[in-house]
Amino acid sequence: MTSAPVMTRTASVGDIALAYQLRGDGPPLLLLHGFTGCGDDFVHFFDVDALASDYQLIVPDLRGHGRTASIGAGFSHRQCAVDVLALLDLLGIDRCRAIGLSLGGNTLLHLATLAPDRVDAMVCVSATSHFPDSARAIMRTMTEESRSTDEWAAMRQRHPGGDEQIRTLWRIARGFADSRDEMSFTANDLATITARTLVVAGDRDPLYPLSITIDLFRAIPGASLLVLPNAGHTPPLHSVAPLLSQHLR
């Protein structure tokens, strides 16, 4: 399969310059990465060239991540959703399909409740309605001193803004530990989602217990649930790619 050309661009969105990639033709498919990740990470989860043969991929580096080094006035999952909606407006895209991983999945929950008519179908992987105590405990460990040499090297590859950008992301992660309104979806909030939704989780996610995933599945109208056995917070999506593709059609 011939690789679809990748166009890397920057859009003025609110108070930041949002970097994003466009690849392929077809119905628009939004790909939203996880926290401390970037849009390039999707090559580790999917055959991106195969996806680009069926869809126009829209792959932003979310606020503060990757080539979008600035957090502007501040960071929140809701603000990331507002940024993405503004990007869709600039691209003239009224409706899209979407896959979100962790931060990306949480951002999709905000996007699909803020603007239900903008999302036809979505896959939320390792997303949560709120931060449980298990996640808060891990978030408090996100210090520069606790990161290994390998972790620093991986972060430097993802984030060209350098060590200050990386430190900012870890500081934001620590801040989530004491946030009570950053993620606070009720069942009534989730009931407003109209997108055809697939909720995906590993049954051994140390951040978000499976009970939260099941609550999401029950609260979102018509949602489907996929639990991957023996999988953690970043489950092996390659193995279930055909199921995800079928859901998005």
Detailed description of the structure:
By secondary structure, the protein is an alpha/beta fold. Helix content is 35%, strand content 20%. Strands 1-2-4-3-5-6-7-8 form an eight-stranded mixed β-sheet, with helices on both faces. Helix 2 packs across helix 3. The longest helix has 14 residues. The radius of gyration is 17 Å and the shape is globular.
Write the CATH homologous superfamily: Alpha/Beta hydrolase fold, catalytic domain
Structural class: alpha/beta
Strand content: 15-25%
Query: What is the N-to-C succession of helices and strands?
Result: EEEHEHEHEHHHHEHEH
Question: Would you give the CATH topology?
Answer: Rossmann fold
Q: Sketch the major β-sheet.
A: 8 strands, mixed
Named at the architecture level, the CATH assignment is 3-Layer(aba) Sandwich
Helical content band: 25-40%
- Alpha-carbon distance between the two ends: 21 Å
Number of strands: 8
Average residue-wise pLDDT: 95
Q: In one word, what is the shape? A: globular
* Tally of structural domains: 1
Radius of gyration: 17 Å
Trace the largest sheet across and list its strands. Answer: 1-2-4-3-5-6-7-8
> Can you identify the CATH class?
Alpha Beta
Per DSSP, the total helix count is 9
Show the helix and strand layout.
Layout lengths: L5 E8 L2 E8 L4 E5 L15 H7 L1 E5 L16 H14 L5 E6 L1 H12 L4 E7 L7 H7 L9 H10 L4 H14 L10 H4 L5 E7 L7 H10 L4 E5 L12 H8 L1
Parallel strand pairs: 3-4, 3-5, 5-6, 6-7, 7-8
Antiparallel strand pairs: 1-2, 2-4
